[in-house]
Design brief:
Structural class: mainly alpha
Number of domains: 2
Number of strands: 3
Strand order of the largest sheet: 2-1-3
Order of helices and strands: HHHHEEHE
Largest sheet: 3 strands, antiparallel
Shape: elongated
Helix content: 40-55%
Oligomer: single chain
Length: 148
């Protein structure tokens, strides 16, 4: 059984989880996995469809929605890593064009955005994450030219 499951079971009041019978332990494991899958499904429900994002006329709002989807992806990955859940999934965030973005938009946590050109800052997002942690990865959004 996953060590995180055992820790949570103890916190829930199960006194001697180490002595559970194999069948009971398997049922508890399955129950925990089902709860986690429900949480992942609920998070995925917050993804905005690519077609709706493309219809958004305001570029800042459009990129906010893309960032939302990146945040959902980050949350699902974090949940899977925490509970050691295997299995690859299709990317949930809309696929961007294969070309490089023209700029980065960085959320400051208070409703403001800082913009910086991509040129000479190609690894900005990676550096930002290494400084601030993966928790804030969705705060840095690549901006692409949509041709509009």
């Amino acid at each position: 059984m996953n060590t995180k499951f055992l820790e949570l079971a103890k916190q829930a009041g199960f006194a001697s989880v180490e002595n559970w019978g194999a069948q009971y332990k398997d049922a508890q494991q399955k129950f925990a996995e089902l709860i986690i899958q429900e949480c992942i499904s609920a998070a995925k429900g917050e993804v905005v469809e690519k077609e709706l994002i493309e219809q958004e006329p305001n570029p800042i709002d459009r990129h906010y929605l893309i960032g939302n989807n990146c945040g959902v992806t980050d949350a699902v990955v974090a949940i899977k890593l925490l509970f050691e859940i295997n299995g690859s999934e299709e990317p949930m965030a809309p696929e961007e064009e294969s070309k490089d973005p023209f700029a980065w938009a960085t959320f400051d946590g208070e409703g403001n955005w800082e913009l910086r050109l991509f040129e000479d800052n190609e690894d900005y997002r990676d550096k930002y994450i290494s400084r601030n942690g993966v928790k804030y990865a969705s705060w840095v959004i690549p901006l692409y030219n949509t041709g509009s």
